[in-house]
Amino acid sequence: YNATVQDHYAKAILERMGVKTGSRNPWLSGNFAPIEKELPLTVCPYTGAIPEKLAGGEYIRNEGNPIFNQDLGRDAYWFDGDGMLIGVLFRHLDKAGTIQPEFTNRFI
After folding, report:
1. Phi, psi of 52 (to 5 degrees)
2. Rg over CA atoms, the chain
3. CA-CA distance, 39 to 36, in Å (whole number)?
4. Structural contact between residues 25 and 74, judged by C-beta atoms closer than 8 angstroms
5. From first to last of its 108 residues, what are the pLDDT tens digits of the chain?
6. What is the distance of C-alpha 44 from the center of its chain?
């Protein structure tokens, strides 16, 4: 796992979630931009190999998701506002060891 794989994954998912990346605030742009949509489990494109030890596991991240910062009357910060759980399930598909990552997210 490296930054190139992470960037490829992030670009594919961010576009599907309707992320607005035009903000000049570094805490509200690029990979930090607020996500406006929830997605069901969605197959993730990836390159390279996923380690076998991840099969059947999950990666879950709890983060800020400040989508309503225009009402704050001040500059927004990364930890302000609403929150979101973001997760990747590493589904074990077959006995041959095929692993398929699937993405989901939920507002909290």
Report:
1. -55, -35
2. 15
3. 10
4. no
5. 445 555 666 666 666 666 554 556 666 677 777 788 899 999 998 899 999 999 999 999 988 777 765 555 556 666 666 788 999 999 998 888 889 999 999 988
6. 10
